[in-house]
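User: Structure tokens for both sequences below?

Assistant:
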Amino acid sequence: MKLLQCYVDNIITTALMEDINYIDASADNLIPEEHKSSVYYVAKDTGIVCGIEIAKRVFDLAGGDVDFEILIKDGTKVNKGDVIARMNGSTLTLLKGERTALNILQHMSGIATATNKCVEQVTGTKASVTDTRKTLPGLRALQKYAVTVGGGKNHRFNLSDCAMLKDNHIDAYGGITPAVKALREKIGHTVKIEVEVRTLDELREALDNKVEIIMLDNMSYDDMKQAVEITAGRALLEASGNVTVENIRTVAETGVDIISLGALTHSVRCFDISMKINK
């Protein structure tokens, strides 16, 4: 997955303008423009690095005049104390870009790390780990990129990617069958239909309508196992709701094809990284 540079630059610029506003009241009044420093990023935990190229770009947009050496690339597992990158150059730029770069790097590395833990738990099953649309406004592509770096896959990026009928769509329209039939009359041939079901009876109805993907919403392990048996490969089955790193193995062993977790993006813990100046 390759992130569009103008998209990344827009996020960085917005973050820098939010953080600096007009001036840096500390650095601009304290540090001479010609002052140079040498700094490094150090991991303070064990996890997966993600967003290092974006962190590098922050310093280009924050003032430039910084040489940024990446020692550990995205997707690499690091341990506490590992040096991730070294920077040499304008002290003003380093100080002004410090927090924005770390905010992005820590958040993306946190997502990649959390995703990787889930992916490791389902190893040996056929289930793939995916994200959801429960992302922070404006950061969706960064967050979904981080999921792929952690070894996961992406669910739809937006409402245009797939015709997904969730419980509110179904309840508002009057049922699975009429909703699917109405959709099929209007959507193009390249658009898949996914239906969220809450019971095994709803699963059977979705199968009767030959939808491509069925989401099993907050089902028990036993119901998920039965859903796999009933479906018998006629549709992809996605498990969703109340999935954690502690129970994801049990969910995967029911035989579902996909496990989606909103927590990978909406409530992930940042991966702890510090920037230190060489005195």
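Moving on to the next sequence.
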Amino acid sequence: MDSTTSMNKIRKALRLIPAFAALILLAISGCTFKGYKFNGSALDYNIYKTISVSEFPIRAALVYPPLQQTFENKLLDMIARQTRLRVIDSTNSDLRMEGEITGYTLSPQAVKEDAYASQTRLTITVRVKYTNNKELGQDIDQTFSAYRDFSSTELLTDVQDELCNQICAELTDLIFNATLGNW
């Protein structure tokens, strides 16, 4: 193939680019994206304006008192960052979220040859009841769990705050996606 033939093919291809671009623009202009919101939620703010979030008491056998406040703050922060909903203290809200922290457990992981665990797993479990007062059939009553492993050479008291922050962040993400994110 000589260079003249190659140049002719390149010129023909370049002439097609504006037509191809115009076709893509026409296709895109005819499309609307009503279901996707760039803020992470799938809510219609013409319908949903308020949410109430009740306390999430600890009902686990093992209790770490700061956990309740940490979880509730992360959940409220996520709602504030990802939605335009107004949080109110009323059962007459458009959406309602309530529940309880049902599990705070430690379990050995990665048992070594000397029968001692080299890792310990901290698992937090939260039961959430989500009520949609505007649309029937959208309610959720579900349990969510998340965990983090840490070295058994570390004391739980030394890593507990950081682990709880990480686990609560993951839990609120899971809960948001299952309820307000409508994933």
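User: Anything stand out in the second?

Assistant: The chain has a mean pLDDT of 85.
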